[in-house]
Structures are given as C-alpha cells and as structure tokens.
Write a structure and sequence with these properties.
With 212 residues, the protein is an alpha+beta fold. 21% of the residues lie in helices and 31% in strands.
Length: 212
C-alpha cells in the first residue's frame, strides 16, 4: 500500500495565511483602540465642567448653633426643646466693645447636628438699660432655601470637595439680635501662597438682624 505524503504549503498559500493573520491582528488592534477611545470619551463626557464640581449651589440639611450674649442680663435661649444658653439675671455680661472689633473672629458652633429645622428659637433677656425682652427667631424662615452662605466662587472650590454642616451663630447684643452663618469652604489654592494650612475659607455672613 502506498502512503501519500502531505505536500508542503506553496509560497502562495503561506503568503495568504500571513496576510490573513496580519489582517486579524490589525482588526483586533483597531477594536482595542476604539474601545479605549470609547472609554476615554465616556469619562470625558462624565467629567464635563458641571459634573467635575461638587453640587452647586451648596446646600445644607443639618446645622450647628452657637449663642453669644453681650451687654445683657439673664440671656436665655431655648432651641429644639433644650436650653442653649442661660446667664445669671443679676450679672451684666461683658460688652463686645471690651473684646475688640474682631470679637466675632473665633466663634465656634456650640451645639452640633441640628436637623433643618426645629421650631423657632425662644429668646429672653434684659438689655443693659434694664428693659426686658422676649422674641422668637425662626431659622427655618431665615434659611428657608437651605443655601450655604459663603463668599467662595465655584471655580475656587476643589473638585469633589466635601462639606461639613455650617454653623448658625445667634448674637444677642444689648438690644440687637443678629443671625450669622459660618461655613468652612475648601479652596483649590491656599489663601496665603506657600501656606498649605490656609486652604479653607470661613467667612461670617450676616443673614438677619433685629433691633428692640
């Protein structure tokens, strides 16, 4: 019985096989590039200017409260069912003038984590002239839009920045009641060039005032 030997591939057949291999590799490479371009395009679309920044405008759902009484007797503040301040009715609290023009500089929120918004705060005090006062301050009305009060442009805030609850500061100063907001806003660049610890801005913003 004769055994048939397999004939060696011809040069033409080798050329066709090589061309097909190169063509397949080229298609796979083109597909990989197309996929990578598609991913980059999707990331670029997701990273549009509006998406790269934190939600704007800045809003808050919880707040802290600081109470500050000056030139008053018996300053008392009730908020969220609790006493937030209660001074001696026979002792005149020091004046803001005795502290200096920057007496508000280092204010901190005393009580933390109030949900927006409890019923109005109840205030009672006696001004330094001996006249007694009572009033209610409705933070829910003053900050009904729940917008954070600050002075930082959107483009100066880092991408994907996070924010804590702002402080609401209640000042009872003789016959005047002031309501401020103070929020810590992170910055892309430090306020003081070269000082990496100055990468926050916390402006005290007056939101409401009344005189009695």
């Amino acid at each position: 019985m004769k055994r048939h030997r397999k004939s060696a591939p011809t040069a033409a057949a080798l050329a066709i096989a090589l061309a097909a291999t190169l063509l397949l590799q080229g298609c796979q490479t083109a597909m990989s590039i197309a996929d990578a371009s598609g991913d980059a395009g999707s990331h670029e679309a997701a990273g549009s200017p509006d998406d790269l920044f934190s939600p704007w405008p800045l809003k808050f759902k919880k707040h802290n409260l600081g109470v500050h009484c000056f030139d008053t007797y018996g300053c008392k503040v009730m908020y969220d069912g609790r006493v937030q301040a209660m001074d001696d009715p026979d002792v005149l609290q020091r004046s803001s003038a005795s502290i200096g023009p920057d007496y508000r500089k280092n204010w901190l929120g005393g009580q933390l984590g109030f949900h927006n918004f409890p019923p109005p705060a109840k205030l009672s005090w006696t001004s330094k002239d001996g006249v007694a006062h009572e009033t209610k301050i409705d933070f829910g009305k003053i900050f009904k839009d729940e917008l954070v009060r600050h002075n930082v442009p959107r483009e100066d805030i880092p991408l994907y920045a996070t924010f804590g609850s702002p402080d609401i500061h209640l000042e009872i100063n003789d016959r005047t009641v002031n309501v401020y907001m103070l929020a810590m806003i992170p910055l892309r660049e430090p306020l003081i060039p070269g000082n990496r610890y100055s990468d926050m801005r916390n402006d005290l913003i007056l939101a409401h005032t009344e005189t009695f």
